[in-house]
Amino acid sequence: MKFILFSAFCVVMAAAMPYDIVEDEDGQQFYAVPVSREKRQTQWGVNQAGAGISHTGNLFDNNNHRVDGTASAAKNWGSHGLRPDQVGGRLDYNHKPSGSSAFVGADNMRGYGTDVNAGVKYNIHQSKNLGVDLSGQYGRHYGGPGGTRDLGSSVFLNANGRF
């Protein structure tokens, strides 16, 4: 079900993108897709615990909304041989005018289950000298030797000021 919702979201986002139809001298029509360069970031590393790679990039950005995505994979090794592979992903949403944001992410370790986390931040007040926001997060573990269980939830009221 989640895959179907995510796929539908991707199709809707692709359909909402502006496409221009251009025609060449022979009458053939082509879609002209606007191209813009966005900063993408790939990180990788190898150490005594294992090797990993992650890639972060912007999926959608306009004057009011921004969606970023991250995908990661890791191969762990230790003193007792190879451990399971890890894969994960995360989507981050930011509402630019209000400064509010949300995220959802999942990490799977083969044989040990999947951790799913989601969170939101609502910007209550923002001025030059004072910022107040309310944030919350929830996590749940699915499958693996320990079975399905809550990882925990939290709610915070954050304030910061300049005096």
Kindly describe this structure.
The chain is mainly β and 163 residues long. It has one domain. The protein has 1 helix and 10 strands; from the N terminus they run H-E-E-E-E-E-E-E-E-E-E. The strands form 2 sheets. The chain has an 8-stranded antiparallel beta sheet, with no helix packed on it.
Helical residues, percent = under 10%
Strand content: over 45%
Would you tell me the structural class of the helices and strands? Answer: mainly beta
Rg result: 21 Å
Strand order of the largest sheet: 3-4-5-6-7-8-9-10
* Mean residue pLDDT: 81
Which ranges are low-confidence, i.e. pLDDT below 50, for 5 or more consecutive residues?
A: none
Distance between the termini: 50 Å
- Note the overall shape: extended
Strand count, sense and closure of the main sheet? 8 strands, antiparallel
What is the tally of beta strands?
Answer: 10
Total domain modules: 1
Oligomer: single chain
Q: How many DSSP helices?
A: 1
Q: List the secondary-structure elements in sequence, H or E.
A: HEEEEEEEEEE
Helix-strand blueprint:
Blueprint: H1 2-16, E1 20-23, E2 29-32, E3 41-47, E4 50-61, E5 65-78, E6 81-95, E7 100-109, E8 113-126, E9 130-142, E10 149-161
Quick recap:
This protein has one helix spanning 2-16, and strands at residues 20-23, 29-32, 41-47, 50-61, 65-78, 81-95, 100-109, 113-126, 130-142, 149-161.
Spell out the key features of this protein:
secreted, mainly beta, innate immunity, 163 residues, eight-stranded antiparallel sheet, 1 helix
